[in-house]
């Protein structure tokens, strides 16, 4: 097993015997399912892994607003526009809770955002794909937020207290997002024209595989999984979560009257799970390297927003200073 971990670049997990007394006490606390809180001692690797994962998660929530924002002005009805705006605002809120959770680990928000802007920090691959039709808004709510929920429901039990508590509210809101997305697609499939039904199928064809990529590389190719599982930051592996997502999503897909662009997708009675085809990992790693259809546009938009919002932040600081002076006077 260790040889295999080294080959895949995986971080080696120390046995209890190899740990310092502090590390052992920490691991025993985790094994006893006691949450780690900001003031508790923690190994530097645990802190750095969480800063990496939570900051990337926060960046994903914020960048994830962009593909949907593209459709606010073109939502087909006032009700749909309001729902979409509420959903996008929820995503902004998720980003804020997550940046706050990250700050409890001693990380600096501006520095982490700068890493996003200079390409050092990742965000979810899925948000580098364009939203070409109104059906994509339904598909993102249903498939993309659906995949996010499968991952995040488990993260409610993650070992770091502030992260797990942030996840509880986020999951509630994501459930609403998933339902509004599915409702958009159901309406198009039930009451739409042939062209609109085709639009739904086309959207599912484009987002199906990228949604499966959201769970990350296969377990054997995931350098962080072994250690993150030992620390109970991750409670289920990338492949386990991907399988859970497929198993719960295929019946919903069939209920819609649509198909997945995967000829190998079929129920396996013996395994009690759906079998599915191989993901195009070349595409996944290309997107991670910054070469997806929208990577450059997404980062340029985020940088512009930070620059153009500078005066708001300055005004808020000036106002807070003034309040402080008044209180002191
Ligand atoms: N998109 C971009 N990068 C990814 C993705 C993805 N879909 N999947 C894996 N990666 C990156 C990892 O961040 C890691 O890179 P790094 O070491 O430079 O940080 C590398 O690929 C190898 O992957 P793993 O070893 O499997 O990484 P990890 O253990 O962090 O697992 C996962 C990846 C499952 C995404 C985990 O970080 C996680 O659960 N994050 C929290 C959930 C989240 O971020 N969701 C965002 C999308 S949902 C939404 O925003 C609506």
Write out key terms for the chains shown:
14 helices, globular, two-stranded antiparallel sheet, 329 residues, binds acetyl coenzyme *A, 67% helix, mainly alpha, 2% strand, Ferritin
Number of distinct beta strands? 2
Please identify the top-level CATH class: Mainly Alpha
Count the domains.
1
Strand-residue proportion: under 5%
Outline: globular
Total DSSP helices: 14
Provide the CATH architecture. Answer: Up-down Bundle
Q: Runs with pLDDT <50, length 5+?
A: 1-8
Share of helix, binned: 55-70%
Identify the strand order in the major beta sheet. Answer: 1-2
Distance between the termini: 66 Å
Describe the largest sheet: 2 strands, antiparallel
Helix/strand class: mainly alpha
Q: Indicate the mean pLDDT.
A: 95
What CATH calls the topology is Ferritin
* H-E string: HHHHHHHHHHHEEHHH
CATH homology superfamily? Ferritin, core subunit, four-helix bundle
Our Rg estimate from Cα atoms comes to 21 Å
**Ligands present:** acetyl coenzyme *A
Protein name: 1,2-phenylacetyl-CoA epoxidase subunit A
Pfam families: PaaA_PaaC
GO molecular function, one term: phenylacetyl-CoA 1,2-epoxidase activity
Organism: Marinobacter lutaoensis
What are the SSEs and their pairings?
Layout lengths: L1 H6 L13 H11 L12 H20 L1 H5 L8 H26 L5 H9 L16 H22 L5 H31 L2 H20 L11 H6 L7 H19 L9 E3 L4 E3 L5 H11 L3 H14 L1 H19 L1
Antiparallel strand pairs: 1-2
Helix pairs in contact: 3-5, 5-8, 7-8, 7-9, 7-11
Bound molecules: acetyl coenzyme *A.
């Amino acid at each position: 097993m260790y040889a295999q971990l080294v080959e895949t670049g995986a971080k080696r997990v120390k046995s209890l015997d190899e740990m310092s007394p502090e590390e052992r006490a920490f691991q025993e606390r985790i094994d006893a399912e006691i949450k780690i809180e900001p003031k508790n001692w923690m190994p530097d690797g645990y802190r750095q892994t969480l800063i990496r994962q939570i900051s990337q998660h926060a960046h994903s929530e914020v960048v994830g607003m962009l593909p949907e924002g593209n459709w606010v002005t073109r939502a087909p009805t006032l009700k749909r526009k309001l729902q979409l705006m509420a959903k996008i605002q929820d995503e902004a809120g998720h980003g804020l809770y997550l940046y706050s959770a990250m700050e409890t680990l001693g990380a600096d928000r501006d520095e982490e955002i700068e890493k996003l802007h200079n390409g050092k920090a990742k965000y979810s691959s899925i948000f580098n794909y364009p939203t070409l039709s109104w059906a994509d808004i339904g598909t993102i709510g249903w498939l993309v937020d659906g995949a996010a929920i499968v991952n995040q429901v488990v993260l409610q039990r993650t070992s770091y207290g502030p992260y797990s508590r942030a996840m509880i509210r986020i999951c509630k809101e994501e459930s609403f997002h998933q339902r509004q997305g599915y409702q958009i697609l159901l309406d198009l499939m039930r009451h739409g024209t042939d062209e609109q039904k085709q639009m739904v199928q086309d959207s599912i064809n484009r987002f199906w595989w990228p949604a499966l990529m959201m769970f990350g590389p296969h377990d054997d190719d995931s350098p962080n999984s072994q250690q993150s599982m030992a620390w109970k930051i991750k409670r289920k592996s990338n492949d386990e979560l991907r399988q859970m997502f497929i198993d719960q999503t295929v019946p919903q897909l069939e209920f819609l009257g649509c198909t997945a662009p995967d000829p190998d997708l079929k129920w396996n009675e013996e395994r009690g799970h759906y079998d599915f085809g191989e993901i195009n990992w070349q595409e996944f790693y290309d997107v991670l390297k910054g070469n997806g259809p929208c990577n450059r546009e997404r980062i340029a938009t985020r940088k512009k927003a930070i620059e153009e919002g500078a005066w708001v932040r300055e005004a808020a600081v000036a106002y807070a200073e003034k309040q402080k002076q008044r209180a002191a006077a």
